Amino acid sequence: MSTHPMPLFRYIAAPLAIVVGTIPAHASEHDEQIWTSMTGTTTLFDNVDATLELHGRYTDEVSRLGQVLIRPSLTLRLPRGWSATAGYVYVHTRFARTVANEEHRAWEQVAYIFKQDRATGLSISGRTRVEQRFRSDSEGVGWRLRQQLRAQLPLPRGPLRVVVWNETFVGLNTTRWDRHKGIDQVRTFIGASLPVAEGITIEPGYLNQTVFRIGPDRVNHILATNVFIRF
Question: What is the annotated signal peptide range for this record (predicted)?
Answer without folding.
Answer: 1-27
